[in-house]
Design brief:
heterotrimer; A: 143 residues; five-stranded antiparallel beta sheet; three-stranded antiparallel beta sheet; 2 helices; B: 429 residues; Peroxisomal Thiolase, Chain A, domain 1; nine-stranded mixed beta sheet; two-stranded antiparallel ribbon
Chain lengths: 143, 429, 428
Amino acid sequence: MARPIVPVPDPVSQPFWDACNEGKLIVQYCSICDRRQYPPEATCRDCGFDFHLSWQETSGRAKIVGYSITYDSRLVQWHPLQPFLNVIVALEEDPVINFHTNLIDDFGTNLTEEPDIPIGATCEVQFVEAAPGRMIPEWKIVK
Amino acid sequence: MAREVNWERNHDPVGIWNGRGKAVLIGRGHSPTDRRWDGETLEKSLGAYMMIAVQNALDDVGIGLDDVDGIIGSAGGQGNGAPLSDVWGPRPYFDAPYDSEDGLTHVTGQWLRQQMGFKNLRYINNHGDPVWNLIGQAAQAIADGRAETVVVTYPNGNLPGRYHQDPSNEARGPAVWPNTWGWGLSGQGFTFNQYCQKYGTNHDRMAPFVVQERKNGLLWEHSYYAQHEPGEFTEEDYLNGRMIARDLSIFDCDRPVLAAAAYVMTTAAKAQDMKQKPVYILDHTESQFTPRSLVQTIDDTEEWTDIQAQRSYNGSGLKPEDIDVFAPYDGFAVFTQYYIEAFGWRGVKRGEAHDFYAGDISLKGPNPLNSGGGNMGTGRMRTVFITDPLEQLQGRAGDRQITTKAEVAVTHGVLPITAGTVVMSTSPD
Amino acid sequence: MARENWERNHDPVGIWNGRGKAALIARGHSPTDRRWDGETLEKSLGAYMMIAVQNALDDAGITVDDVDGIIGSAGGQPNGAPLSDVWGPRDYFDPPYDSEDGLTHVTGQWLRQQMGFKNIKYINNHGDPIWNLIGQAAQAIADGRAETVVVTYPNGNLPGRYHQDPSNEARGGAVWPNTWGWGLSGQGFTFNQYCQKYGTNHDRMAPFVVQERKNGLLWEHSYYAQHEPGEFTEEDYLNGRMIARDLSIFDCDRPVLAAAAYVMTTAEKAKDMKQTPVYIWDHTESLFSPRSLVQTIDDTEEWTDIQAQRSYNGSGITADDIDVFAPYDGFAVFTQYYIEAWGWRGVKRGESHDFYAGDISLKGPNPLNSGGGNMGTGRMRTVFITDPLEQLQNRAGERQITGRAEIAVSHGVLPITAGTVVMSTNPG
């Protein structure tokens, strides 16, 4: 299904979105500082430069660390889908790195009743089409 | 022109403030409080209200315009710098002085100077934000000799329509990350969800706090609720609140209102000749942080608020037990627990705020938390966080006067990610 | 991660509460070359930076394990313009030379990895330029962020010319100068106003620039001592090719490749090191904006007055207390603004060129820029730290001044953005 809001890549984020189109979840990695960085930025926040910044594929596995359910969004395009689920997952190999997900496959949107979100559950990334040719990462709970 | 940088005290160790006791907060003035401006009635514009508030503040301390040599304010309607006119403007303008947004949804010090006829100003700064930081900035300016008697202005506008609505079906720049997944207030909902998980508590346990704030706010004549919705607000009302973003209901989100407030601050010496009792600024500290990744977690939140609380204690030399009047911000009601726990007021430790709420936090009890009512009790004015501590320490809070000692106050806001804390005392040291 | 304000740029700064807590104690330099050839890795900026750091550690008699902080300008060109924007990207080499880091920039993280620093608890690569780095390190030490800090100043130069811009369109901030062909003419204009205001002219700079070259030739690390040791005369100066009237080629510092490192530490730890401690009494900084399009002489005099007064307020010294004075000269026309703002040796506004005409020799009463400044050493900037340090440690050799050398003031970089460091042999 089409998503309410489609992300428009910029020069810094373009590799991230390109990788999504290839079915890969990548984050920035600064080799000299040994740290991952997401969302992407032009430079590493620690050393302040892009010299050692590259893209690193992730395991695509993460754990649910918390959630919210939006009933009244300021984002008008999302209004028809209310209430909808907002979950945060933390990357398995580096829990500092966290991602948004709506857990599309599991719970969908226009929730008819509030789901019981299993905190700590492992999720795997999946890619969904936000618009033709524009894949975005989503997550589903590993059964 | 020198760029005036680095007035903030945000670099540890801050040490005891060298301006301690030099600057005084002494008077306050408020405009009427409305829900919104109708876009037409010029005598109810933010500029008109700001002038009322300034005049009231001057009258409160018994000085004239000519006694003022500084204006420090937030011109920006919304305290955090988001111009109202980006959302609702541009609009057709009126005859001067209402021929731009200045006076309608923003109020600069220069506009006030022109309209009110201030003649002796030597320092104007419109870039402050939000009210804690403005008080800190003015205290610093007075301690540094930039001005002797400063009017601090806090115009806070609201217009027809809803806040920050975004109709776009595309997201660009930093908005890509939240908007693609429909993220918004859910950020605060998520952090609170983590808090509840971590400490085994839940949304409903906030009820005694929010209900008590409304009670306190109804006793403040300037509050939106006192002026427009004076009815009782019960725990049942709170628990039936329409959910906005779990677990924030409508009653955890402050209600946008239109109001202006002004404060008179001056030197310790000049304060002796003014009509009210001086309340001395013992310290101001500020902070600004960045989340480790996409979303602010409970770990970020606790780290940041710990840093800022410790910075404030280091800057003032106080301990938690020294704080008589404590005014931690509640623009979202879920903020307050993070601040109470960081400052350890009344011995409250991490995870214990909801137990604390379940005890006696009443106005006349031993733990009169946010005796002014906070934003939940007054509307999205923010200024009760200055006015109430001031009035408590001056012994003129009327029905809100706490029965416990009121000699030292700490007021703190705005967000965990960017904060200012002001410490005030009835004594200069 | 927290954003903080370490600079002392808000008046009144008051006497620095870190006064005497931090000591500058040792220096190390690499060889100085005109340019890097883009190939010879042992002459890269990274290789040179490592040489300088090791020399500084040896100078202080400590090892990498004694260091817990690195504060530096990673940026090749100190004011933040990455060399690689001009000349890169390029083909890279095997690690550790697989990015600009090590070739034209050198981060503290790269140095940690290459030199095996194990005990680093504070790294900051965002400092700029050298005066501000010394100030930042002094503040970090006084604040307890680190005890023993290596301050790094890698300064690269590659084939080609600085900042050449082939575009026939101007955008953003560049619209205003480029449309009218403005560039170094900005400094020329301000100097033109100075000359009008005080009835002087370019040629009266000659004694100053010539004296700086003499001093610089006595500094073993200077570009000129290493590569062009011949005499530089007033006649040479007066025949200089004009770049932007009234700046000739000899009023513009010569880009070179060099690295320098300094050891700074607590007053306590300094006692166990090999050199005499030089205590930091104060650091102050400033940042200004022109009133309109172009910086005028009025702007220049206002800004430099503010910064000089700020430094005096921060250190509690007066003009008479300054034994060693090192005002920047990256364009030679800067120096007069600074001398006059500080009132060193009683020089008032408009009097610098008269002062230059007097005795400013190394062994005379007014040994201005005893290290030679950039005009005497190349665009190294580090002589502004090394020479005051060595003068106060009484190890400046042939450059040692004959008068008292107990208090030094070093100041740079531009009138519009400045840092001043006050040092003393006494903790104060």
